[in-house]
Amino acid sequence: MSTNKDHLDGMTVFVRVVEKGNFTLAASFLNHSTSYISKEISRLESRLGVRLLNRSTRKISLTDSGRTYYEYCRQIVADAEEAERSISSQHEIPHGVLKISAPISFGHVYLADLLPKFLKAYPDVQMEVNFDDRLVDVIAEGYDVVVRVTNLKDTSLISRKIMSSRIITLASPEYLSRKGCPAHPRDLVEHDCISYAYLQRPAYWDYMSASGEPVGVTVKLQVICNNDELQRSMAVAGVGITRIPSFCCQGELSTGALVPILKEYEFSDLGVYAIYPHRRNLSTKVRVFVDFLVEHFSR
């Protein structure tokens, strides 16, 4: 009588055979004999009642049933391996270099105070920190964790939401008294605007009406710059109207140095995410750091 463990063993052998391309390499990887691998595949096919692999003297290929079954097995095996790594890593002490990237404003507002607390709790970790509004390549540039403020799209990377923010439209009281206050996004075409260089279309600002209809406007750019802090400073100085995340300007909002406008046309919350490479490569230092961020911002 077969058991759940037998089923998982058979799935693991099947996944490794497909990944390695033949029985011999799979056997070497799993530290078994080729005959054992062959018997496991035959036993699996017999139990399922279908042929999973087409075999020839030189190579193997997946049948249609095998292709479908492989997609399920790959995830199940990965989850099982991750569960074991996760339990084992709980007893490991985080150590080594942790390479982090975050937007400039978010880094200054939040991480500048948080990172020393993390290092105090985990003194065997060293950090390489880069505050940059550029969209970095997590894999190619070797980052362990990247913080992004975005409406997250599909990605091959893993993400955990750590907080929410909003994009708001702002101007100084001096600018509004001099130029007038726009009542509708379309009125922005008559105003001087300050925009973010890394937007796909910096001169196109999109809003949403009360009925849920998109409202887009091409604005006149007085300044385009590559970080939120400069946008905020320009707006405080009365240069023009800008749009930035709310966490960048809490002080200016509380003192009245900047005034929110067009609030009824703004989108819903943006997410702030910790993004990192696939969980199968997740080290203890990354897991502990992401947990640290999530716990802090949940409070």
Describe this structure in a few short sentences.
Helices cover 40% and strands 25% of the residues.
Describe the fold and architecture.
The protein has 299 residues and is α/β, with parallel strands linked by helices. 40% of the residues lie in helices and 25% in strands. The protein contains nine helices and 14 strands. The strands form four sheets. It has a five-stranded mixed sheet, covered by helices on one side. It has a five-stranded mixed sheet with strand order 11-8-12-7-13. The radius of gyration is 27 Å and the shape is elongated. The relative contact order is 0.14. The mean pLDDT is 87.
How much strand?
A: 25-35%
Question: Which class of secondary structure composition applies to the elements?
Answer: alpha/beta
What name is given to the CATH topology of the largest domain? D-Maltodextrin-Binding Protein, domain 2
**CATH classification, class level of the largest domain:** Alpha Beta
Helix content: 40-55%
Query: How would you state the average pLDDT, rounded?
Result: 87
Poorly predicted regions are none
The count of helical stretches stands at 9
DSSP E strands, number:
14
**CATH homologous superfamily annotation of the largest domain:** Periplasmic binding protein-like II
The major pleated sheet works out as: 5 strands, mixed
